[in-house]
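Run log, item B.
One chain of 312 residues. Sequence copied directly from the ordering sheet:
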Amino acid sequence: MTMQPIPDGLVVLTHWGLMRARGADAVKFLQGQLTNDIATLGADRARLAGFCSAKGRLQASFVVWQFAPDDLLLACHASVLPATLKRLSMFVLRAQCKLSDAGSEWRLLGAVGATARHWTADLPVWGQRAAAGGSTVRLPDVDGLPRALLAQPLAESLPSAPDFALDAWRLLEVRSAIPVIEAATVDQFVPQMLNYEVVGGVDFQKGCYPGQEVVARSQYRGTIKRRMFLFAVDEAGHAGQEVFHSADPAQPAGMVVNAALQAGAPGSSVVLVEVKLAALEGGSLHLGHAGGPTLRQLELPYPLPGEAALLA
C-alpha cells in the first residue's frame, strides 16, 4: 500500500485581507465595535470576532491580535475589507484610532504541516507571537494537521518552505468549520446561525457593540432555529448559493457560507451551510434548487449545544 505524503508547506493567502488599527484608543474602539472581548486580548493571543449591523447581522468576521501596544491587526476576507474599513471608520469620530488597509505593507501566509509546527512550536491554539518582523497565529488543527496564519511585512522575503496549493488551504479552512464572511454573505447571518459563539467568536459578558441586544436575545431566549453544518456535494458550490429542501422547493432552507473544491474529486466540493434545523429532520437538501445535487452531511469538528437532540 502506497503511503500518501503528509501535506506540508506555505501559501500566500490572496483571498484574505489585513486591516490595521493603531492609536491610544485602538483597543477601546474595537471593544465597542466587535462581538468578542478585545480589552483582555493581551499580547500573546488571537481571537475571532465579528462586526455586526444594528440588526445583529454579520458584516465581517475577523481574526484579531495585538501586534504591538496600541497596534492591532485584523485579518478578514479580502472581498469585505474595503466596505468594512469604510463603515468602521465612520464610528471612529474623536477616538485616537487610525484604521487602514495594511495590504500595501503586509502579506498573509498560511502554513501547514511541519512548516506550521515549526512556526507555532509551544503555542496553544489561537496563541500568537512576534516572528520574522511580523506575527504568527496558531489556528485549530484540521484532521490532525497543524495550521498557522503568518502576517509578514512585504519588505521581508518569503520564508523558505515548500509551496502549498491555495485550493488545498481553502479546503482546510472549510473543513475547520470556522466561518468566514464573504461579500456574498454580508448581512445574512446572526452569529449563532454560524456557530460563531461555539467557536469562540462571541463574548456575552463584554460591553455593548452594534447588534449586541439582538445577539444576546437570540442566545438567552433559545430562539436559535438555524445552525451551520458541513456537507459534501457533487458540484462546485460557492458562498451565497441557496440550498433547498426536497419537501419545500419554493423556499430556500439555507445558504452556503463558504465552499472549497474537493481534492481528487473534480467538480465536487465541501460546503459550510447555514440551514434551518427543521430541514435536518427528514427529506434531503439540494444545492441551488430542489432538483440540484444532494448535500451529504459530514461531521463537524466540534459539538454543537444540544447536538444529540438536533441530530436524533
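Observations after the first pass:
- The radius of gyration is 19 Å.
- The chain is about 15% helix and 35% strand.
Flagged for discussion on Thursday.
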